[in-house]
Amino acid sequence: MVDVFESISASKETELKISELLSTQSIFELVFEIVKDSGFYNQDENFKLIRALNIDTTEESLEEDLYSTWITMGDNLNTAKTQEEFNAKFALFVPIILKRMELINRVAI
Asked: Which domain of life is it from (predicted)?
C-alpha cells in the first residue's frame, strides 16, 4: 500500500494526473491478489461494503470517475484511527479502483 502512495507522491505536479493513477495499477493488482488470498473479500460484510462503495458516479468521463473514486478513497483513509483500520479501508477500495482503471484501459485499446 505504501508503494501506491510513494509512487503518487513522487510527482512534482500539484495535481494528480490520470496517467499517474494508472501507473499504480500493477501495485493495486498485487494488493488485490494478496487480500483475496487472505479471504477478506469472501466475508459477507466486506463484500456488501464493496458493493455499496462501488456506486456509479455522475462524472462525465471514465478518467473523472477514477479520479473521483481515488479522492473518496483518500478521504476515507484519512479518517482511519489505526493501521488496521487504514488497511481494511484501503482493501475495500482496491477492487473498485481496479475496475475503474480497467474500464479506462479497455477504452484506450
From this structure: Bacteria
